Structure formats: structure tokens, C-alpha cells
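Re-run with default settings, no changes from the original entry. Doing this only to confirm the output is reproducible before filing.
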Amino acid sequence: MQPSPLNHPSRRSFLKYSAAALGTPLVAPLILAKSVTGANDKLNLAWVGFGNQGGGDLGACAGGNNIVALCDCDQNILDRGKKNFPNAKLYTDFRKMLAEMGDKIDGVGVGTPDHTHFAIAYMAMNLGKHVFVEKPLVHTLWQARTLRELAAKKGLVTQMGNQGHAFEGALLIKEWYQAGLIGEVKEVIVWTDRPKAGWGFNGNVMTAYPKAETPPKGMDWNLWLGPSTLNVGFSPAFHPTTWRPWWEFGCGGLGDIGCHTIDTPYWAMDLGAPDSVEVEMHGDVNPIHTPNGSVVTFNFPARGSKPPVKVKWYEGPSLPPAPAGYDGPAPGGEGGMIMVGENGGIFHAGMRPDSPVLYPKAKWEAYRASGDKQVPKTIPRTGGIHRDWLESIKNGKKSCSDFSYSAALTEAILLGTLAIRTGKTVKWNAAKLEITGNPEAAKWINPEARAGWRAKDLV
């Protein structure tokens, strides 16, 4: 299915509310618009969706800035927002918010379920607003490409909420790899406990949509459905936290955690776009809900003198075997990553790169004892992904996980979700935005959206 320019636009709360790529670029280099304020001035921010993770993002960005508008389709969430941000104007529909408040807003945050990310960001960006969007950036391949191109065209400061991208561990891994500490890498192993366990997942694989129930008082279920053409009623199986396993609304365990755990090796090695993605199913293929235990292999081609790389992703309860020469902890827990180099490798536990180490252990101990011979820190430290977005807006700079990077990462992640969704290999032509040999996956490049949520309805 070829994309149409008029088609689809449409965790945990880590902070409490607080007032106090492609290898070859497809778009022009990003030229940022002039900063909207001085470096010490306050920004006027609006937030759409702030019940869980979005609430953490909102709290992280609120200090020292003005929260001028809040939007959520659940009145209970809005009431909470009003208590914490009494000067904010409240809305249930982001379209009305942007129409009425557009000239009073500098930046818009998006913390809604995956299937509505695009519509909100697309409308805000067309109005010239800087945007922060939770991961995964969008729900479809066409949406990722469209937002990437729009950000470049508009010169906007954009950021995806993959917090680990700004962690010290991520920067160290990239610096170690670039300095040649582990030599060339041809294999990366990543794993997660999702969807068998973890926030938003309970391990139950559903084969039918749940029976409709009465929505909570004050909730607009039609707005929650957003661009979806699926005729389903409210169910606690979807809202407030369990929408991620459903393909119609989320992107499974891979979409949830891949933007964290795959992000670091993807960025460190400038992997660009895979040319194919393979899948080993350890559960039945499921067209509506992610199964458990899938193993996905991303095949990234050579980059200049750099060799091809296989990134192998294991979903719970599947776990990878340890590679040859690895003497660290056995893969387990909520997730982790191993970059397998020709001269040892790099490991970190957990979904994000909190504390990376070299392996084998003898290599790590020798490096730690090397003092001033350690690899210098050459990548700028930003102080966190939220602070980086805010300061980039104020100073007219490019943010660390802007859409020129994070949209390309999201494209790769989404290709893996389509392999799981169809149970078949996905062959990808990034330049043409085209999937071959898997028509079931190809139809999800840019599926239709409801009227009022299509791209042409949002400009």
C-alpha cells in the first residue's frame, strides 16, 4: 500500500506532578527556528495526556515554566491537573485547545497512548509549536517519516521521550565504541521481560476484543479512540494502563521498551535503517494482540567500512544465550543489552543503560585501572532529556533525541512490530517507504484514520 499525503494522522509515572535513521538523510538538514525566549525566560507549555508517563514528563518540564493548558479525555485526570496547575486552562479535545490557545503556547507535550501521538504532534507542529512526544514516537511508519520531514521543514525543537538516551551510560557506550575499545561489532543482543510481565502488561494473550463496559464518569471514550476505525467500547482491558499489548492502540513490548534498550547500540553505531527484519514466533501469530516470547532479528546493512550488524531482540519469557567470551551476569531481569565486539564487548542490565561495563571482567578491571588513559568524554552532557528539550527551545539548539534521529529509530522498531504482528519476515526499502514480500505488513504502513483525525483534517 502506497502512502497518501492525505491519509492517516490520524510507566510507570517516574515523577509526581510538580509545579516547582536512516543512514542517508531523506530530508534537508534541520535548521532551527530562532529561540522563542531568552535563555532565562519561562516557556508557555501545554500537555496532552498526563495520567501516567505523561504526568511524569509534565512534572519534569513544569519547574520554572508556565503550564498554560492541559488536555485529557478523562475528567478525573483533568481535575488532578487543575489541582496541581490551577492557572492552566483545561480541555478534553486537543484540537480545540490548539485552536484557542495556539498563540499562547510555545511547546506541546504528548503523553497519550501510541495511536494518538501523531495527530497531536502533527497539528501542533503545523502551528509552529515545539513538541515532546513519549516513545514510541508514533504508531505507523508513514507517521514517523511525516513527522521527521515536518520537523525539518518547520525548524522546530522536537524530542522523543526515550529518557535513557540522555543517561551517562548511553554516552559512555557510544564513546567507548567510537574509540574502538571493543573493536568492530557484528552482533547485538537485547532482551525484555515484556510482554510476559512489566508495567502495562499482565502476560495474558487475548484473541478477542473485550465486551464493552460503561466508561468511568467524565471520560470521553470517543476521544480516547482517536483515529481508530475499530468499533469497540470502553474496557479496563484498554484503559488506563493496559492498552500497549493491543496492536490497534499500542506497539507491544517491542514498541514499549525497544526505544530504550535498542536505542543505545542503534545510536552508538549509527545503524540507520534495517533492510529486513525476521521473526521467530514462540506463540501463535495474533492479529489483534501481541503474543509472548517472540524473537526478532534486525538486519542492518554495512555502513561504509563498517560491517553489517544483526540486532537480536528477545521478548519475555524468551531469554538469549550468552555469547562466546561473555562472563557477566546471565541475561534476565527486566531486560538488558550486550554489544558483541571482536575484542570483548559491552553489557548493561535493565531496560536503560544505567551502569554499562566492558567484558570480559578482566578487560573491565584493566580499563577502570587505566586512569587518564580512559576514553575522554567528548559528547555533550545535557542533564536529562526533559531539560535538554527545554533548553534547546530557549537557546535555538538541536535536542539530543530530536525527530531526525528518533523517527528513524522508531521506524526500525515498528518494522519489528510488523514482523511479530504477521509472523513473517519484513523486507524494507527505506528510501521508498515500501515493504515487499509481506502484503499483510505493507497494509499497516499507513492505515486509514477516522474523519477528523486524518492529516488533512488537522491543518
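The domain at 166-200+250-373 is CATH 3.30.360.10 (Dihydrodipicolinate Reductase; domain 2). Confidence is low (pLDDT under 50) at residues 1-31.
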